[in-house]
Amino acid sequence: MSISVRQVLIAHATWHGDAAQVQAMDLALNSKLANTRALLTSWRPLGSSHHSGNSDWASPSERFWAQSAGWLPDTSPAMDVDNSELTQPLPLAALELGDQLPPNLPAAWLSPVHALATTNDRRLSHPNHFPLGEAPRNTLLHALKPLCAADGVDVSYVAPHSRFLLLHLLRCIVCPSITQACDQAINDYLPFSTSHPASAQWLRRLQNEAQMLFYTHPVHDERLALGLQPVTGIWLHGAGAIAEHLDHSHISRNNELAQHVHQPFDWQAAWAALDAGTMATLLDQGQTQPFEVCFASHNGINRYASPALSAAQGANKTPLLQRLSNTITHGWRQQAPTRLPSALAPQ
């Protein structure tokens, strides 16, 4: 008999920084995450998976969510311009839009961005450092429509702060996740296409034209007058198509921490609120309902099964030697001064 498991994915569960920053976060939060600590000591570890590093243009939480929804990558790896292997990015837009799109119709998210020029390169400003209201966002993207229409591209509204772009060329373009590209040198994350080089050339031309368009747009001067970063271009991400609609209703993504990934004090406050809310609810409901909580960090995923899920899976029927080992391990964990939230990252 199959078990209907609800998965809860916590994105950016640990702080990504140097050792001193991570230690400071633990000192600030360790005593405030009582529900998370109780969950770690009472739920069964399901193991961890490690992120492939800089070669992957999708974050661990994005890739895990897509695979949990049933998406499988192509068997042939993508290759960058230096012929080194690159993990295939995800068609996140098509996956998220689901049955709003016909099968095999490529889609991509389109986001206005600010690129910060430095001495040696240009870097994308993180969206959290780049507040852009719905009105100016829509104004800029409406101004972009004629440029897209000239190439037979339709920019369509989906939801607040979201647009998607439809075009057959998107099937061939390898685009990095905006999560991975932010605060990185743009030259290391340029879209490419080995099978259709003209597709990537088209996208870069559109990005250049958008940069010139936005520089002369009234929104540019309005934001400068308010002391805000101007919009300097567009970023295409999550490009691709899927053969059929995949049901991902069983997995929910919690992005409360991801909203403050570069804002340490706000991230701390968000974690405290998450522990008091979502984690407390999971701790309670997990006694009677089959849940799996997945903590996503920059270097991978850690997964835990609720007591109800463990019981349903017959975890208490493991061999005696393994149960003794689990008892010793769990007993040590309950007494150890585990530092949170850094202990949520794969070791």
Task: Give an account of the 3D structure.
With 347 residues, this protein is an alpha+beta fold. It has two domains: 144 residues, no CATH class; 165 residues, no CATH class. 36% of the residues lie in helices and 19% in strands. The chain has eleven helices and 13 strands. The strands form four sheets. A five-stranded mixed sheet has the order 2-13-12-1-11, with helices on both faces. It has a four-stranded antiparallel sheet with strand order 8-9-5-10. Strand 12 and strand 13 form a beta hairpin. Helix 2 packs across helix 9 and helix 5 packs across helix 7. The two termini are 34 Å apart.
Count of the domains: 2
> Low-confidence runs (pLDDT<50, min 5 residues)?
79-85, 317-325, 327-337
Secondary-structure-based class equals alpha+beta
- N-to-C SSE string, H for helix and E for strand: EHHEHEEHEEEHEEHHHEEHEEHH
Rounded to an integer, what's the Rg over CA atoms?
22 Å
Number-wise, the strands total: 13
Largest sheet: 5 strands, mixed
Per DSSP, the total helix count is 11
Strand order of the largest sheet: 2-13-12-1-11
User: How much helical structure, as a percent, in the residues?
Assistant: 25-40%
Percent of residues in β-strands: 15-25%
* N- and C-termini, Cα separation: 34 Å
Overall residue-averaged pLDDT value: 83
Overall body shape:
globular
